[in-house]
């Protein structure tokens, strides 16, 4: 028996001991081997924990979709049997992708395929609830203050690859699951990080088994859901009664979508039918083979029962979860897809335009100009007498964002579809339904004078790996891009930043006094404050860079040395903090140490533009939210103004602008990442986790504020981070510490 077969046998034996059959374990093992490029170690680690987790995950995927829960509830109300015998279509889809190219793909999957549009259709039928972690993952445990807080150089804690194979494995699989939860098959490709993108399978309609033993009298349950999202009405009708005449059910491809939930073994089926009219109404109906003629069912009771069932199945749902809302969202999605469809048609000559539903407002809230809608809530943003620009965030005044323009936030996705994953907004404590106004941008934009020269010609051979192919991390020798980090890649094969690097960066940020500072001869910052006689430079921390492969490299987008350029992949939520810090950002899933969360994104400004904005805001008694890109100013000689850059997330930004400050033991660290430009005038500022973070924990970073600097021009907010190491002398934690109470 070959070594590989021997290892496979051992793995299957180990699974057998855990109660998993060979049939259950074999395809999952094949899949893991593919994910890990035939590397057995992460699979064998911790007594095959990754394999066991993956098998459980595959089983988890057999969740009951909400539409089917509705049918079950109705069946149970009228006392008819309802037997669930199907597989979750998305889990099937994930498996389809994971198994592609393997024998298992052909062996294990029934012919079930769906087109991109049909997946939307199915998602519309109540499957795609991105707002909530429908499948609660097992927690990985959090080590409190997981990294060193003692001054002094941090010791690398060993190779991250070996040290935490299991959580990393877990994360790969979680990402795949979450991608499927989101109905985003393209995300699955990335979740698998090292897999080549595969062509999508093709079929017309999402089909799953359902309603096995139901009687065949074809009744329909119609839900009239207001397109404004105001609520949901329902009634049960006989199939003979068709959709209201006001709602023209037009053929699929215009404004009607039909998703058949069908048992492939018998003829019974549940049909989800969504139609929209030209006056903006959207109507959804579920048709099932149940004899409802003798029963009068309250939709309220049905919804309540479905909600309870969802809670039972999915474990974690937001407090305001309701089937009514889910239905509303289905209707909005139909309308939005209809609008996109309209655009396509109008661009191609306006044909069919009249058949398309007008745009229906998303669940949204408008923020009025000039309202005193300070997202920072109870936190005291003290006003500065003088504009201030430091190496990190100084203070933030969301009101300032309001004074320029007013925008509308979609609380079901603050990114308005700009990110690959939806980012919801919730406020469990206050009356403000959404954060103050700003424009969401997923990537930095140059404001005006900043010199951001992205040019292929400027990238020399030494700054790219043109001869590479596929995934640089699996090459026998590190490519040229790894030279920037001492010839070693900073990422693990699972896409996590290695522990040694995180600890090093964290140390620089936490203990700047222990690290090298660069003092400019002619500091651009001081120059922008006073060109005629600038003050001496106050020093800039020298920070190490990550260098990712990019377009001039021969590798592909799936290369393991490309992480931040793929964008946000973890499930995030903007929420209102209870401590009075205003809005914050949290994760909805467990994250291992080293996970990329998001970039700090905003307008790229020159140091004098930043300063001008700071003056303007100080004049209004306001502060701004600016970060300097000064990590490598020391190697640049004398910088011209247009080369000394910073990022301002006040008016245009991404979720990074919601990350609050925490003294010392923050769970994120900001790291400079070079992607498109070899010089370090411009770079990306990326947030990675410094330790394991549990689902629903707030994400924080240490702004580096010196709270003791009471004489300086900048008056920091009163810190409410709650850390036992809080530096703010006004914080109760620090006062307690000073009094020897903790
Ligand atoms: C980058 S913004 C973070 C998002 C902000 N909380 C919001 O509502 O938009 C920074 C501002 O948040 C508030 N903030 C952040 N961390 C804080 C903390 N630890 N304690 C009190 N306020 C905090 C301060 O008003 C600060 O100026």
UniProtKB/TrEMBL annotation:
Highest taxon of source: Eukaryota
Its predominant location is nucleus
Specify the SET domain's residue ranges. 570-704
Tell me which residues make up the Pre-SET domain: 464-567
Q: Does the keyword Metal-binding apply?
A: yes
Localization per Swiss-Prot or TrEMBL: Chromosome; Nucleus
Indicate, by first and last residue, each region the UniProt record lists as having compositional bias (Polar residues).
156-167
The reply to whether Transferase figures as a keyword in the UniProt entry is yes
Q: What SMART domains would the database entry show?
A: PreSET, SET
Gene3D superfamilies reported in the protein's UniProt record: Histone-lysine N methyltransferase , C-terminal domain-like, SET domain
- Stretches the record annotates as Disordered: 142-169
Query: Under which name does UniProt file this protein?
Result: Histone-lysine N-methyltransferase SUVR4
């Amino acid at each position: 028996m070959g070594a590989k077969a021997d290892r496979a046998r051992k793995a299957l034996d180990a699974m057998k001991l855990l109660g998993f059959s060979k049939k259950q374990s074999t395809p999952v093992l094949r899949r893991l081997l593919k994910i890990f490029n035939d590397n057995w170690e992460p699979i064998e680690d911790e007594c095959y924990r990754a394999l066991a987790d993956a098998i459980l995950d595959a089983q988890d995927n057999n969740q009951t979709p909400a539409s089917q829960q509705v049918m079950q509830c109705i069946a149970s109300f009228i006392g008819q049997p309802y037997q669930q015998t199907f597989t979750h279509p998305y889990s099937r889809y994930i498996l389809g992708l994971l198994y592609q190219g393997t024998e298992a793909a052909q062996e294990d999957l029934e012919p079930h395929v769906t087109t991109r549009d049909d997946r939307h259709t199915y998602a519309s039928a109540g499957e795609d609830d991105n707002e909530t972690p429908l499948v609660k993952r097992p927690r990985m445990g959090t080590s409190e203050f997981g990294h060193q807080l003692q001054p002094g150089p941090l010791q690398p804690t060993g190779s991250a690859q070996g040290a935490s194979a299991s959580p990393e494995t877990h994360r790969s699989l979680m990402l795949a699951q979450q991608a499927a939860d989101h109905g985003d098959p393209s995300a699955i490709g990335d979740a698998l990080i090292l897999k080549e993108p595969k062509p999508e399978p093709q079929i017309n309609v999402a089909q799953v088994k359902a309603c096995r033993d139901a009687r065949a009298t074809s009744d329909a349950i119609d839900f009239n859901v207001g397109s404004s999202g105001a609520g949901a009405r329902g009634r049960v009708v006989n199939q003979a009664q068709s959709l209201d005449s006001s709602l023209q059910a037009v053929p699929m491809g215009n404004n009607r979508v039909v998703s058949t939930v069908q048992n492939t073994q018998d003829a019974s089926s549940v049909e989800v039918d969504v139609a929209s009219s030209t006056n903006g109404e959207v109507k959804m109906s579920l048709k099932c083979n149940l004899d409802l003629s003798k029963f009068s069912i309250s939709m309220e009771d049905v919804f309540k029962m479905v909600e309870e069932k969802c809670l039972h199945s999915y474990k974690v749902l937001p407090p305001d979860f309701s089937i009514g809302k889910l239905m509303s969202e289905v209707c909005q999605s139909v309308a939005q897809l209809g609008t996109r469809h309209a655009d396509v048609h109008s661009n191609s000559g306006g044909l069919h335009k009249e058949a398309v539903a007008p745009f229906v407002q998303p669940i949204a809230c408008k923020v009025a100009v000039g309202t005193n809608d300070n997202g920072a809530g109870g936190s005291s943003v003290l006003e500065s007498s003088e504009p201030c620009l430091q190496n990190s965030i100084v203070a933030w005044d969301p009101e300032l964002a309001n004074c320029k323009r007013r925008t509308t936030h979609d609380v079901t996705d603050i990114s308005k579809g700009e990110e690959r994953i939806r980012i919801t907004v919730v406020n469990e404590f206050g009356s403000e339904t959404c954060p103050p106004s700003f424009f969401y941008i997923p990537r930095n934009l140059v404001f005006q004078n900043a010199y951001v020269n992205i040019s292929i010609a400027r990238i020399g051979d030494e700054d790219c790996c043109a001869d590479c192919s596929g995934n640089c991390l699996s090459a026998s020798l590190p490519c040229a891009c790894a030279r920037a980090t001492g010839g070693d890649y900073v990422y693990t094969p699972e896409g996590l930043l290695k522990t040694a690097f995180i600890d090093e960066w964290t140390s620089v940020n936490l203990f700047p006094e222990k690290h090298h500072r660069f003092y400019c001869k002619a500091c651009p910052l001081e120059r922008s404050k006073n060109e005629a006689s600038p003050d001496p430079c106050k020093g800039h921390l020298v920070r190490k860079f990550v260098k990712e492969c990019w377009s001039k490299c021969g590798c592909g987008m799936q290369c393991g040395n490309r992480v931040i350029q793929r964008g946000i992949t973890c499930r995030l939520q903007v929420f209102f903090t209870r401590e009075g810090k205003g809005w914050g950002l949290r994760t909805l899933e467990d994250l291992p140490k080293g996970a990329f969360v998001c970039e700090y994104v905003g307008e790229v400004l020159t140091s004098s533009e930043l300063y001008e904005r700071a003056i303007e805001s100080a004049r209004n008694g306001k502060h701004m939210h600016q970060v300097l890109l000064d990590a490598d100013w020391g190697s640049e000689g004398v910088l011209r103004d247009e080369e000394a850059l910073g990022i301002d997330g006040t008016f245009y930004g991404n979720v990074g602008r919601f990350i609050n400050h925490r003294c010392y033991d923050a769970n994120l660290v900001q790291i400079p990442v070079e992607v498109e430009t070899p010089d370090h005038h411009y770079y990306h500022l990326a947030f990675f986790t410094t330790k394991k973070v549990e689902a629903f924990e707030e994400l924080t970073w240490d702004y580096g504020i010196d709270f003791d600097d009471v004489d300086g021009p900048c008056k920091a907010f009163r810190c409410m981070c709650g850390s036992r190491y809080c530096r703010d002398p006004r914080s109760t934690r620090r006062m307690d510490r000073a009094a020897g109470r903790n």
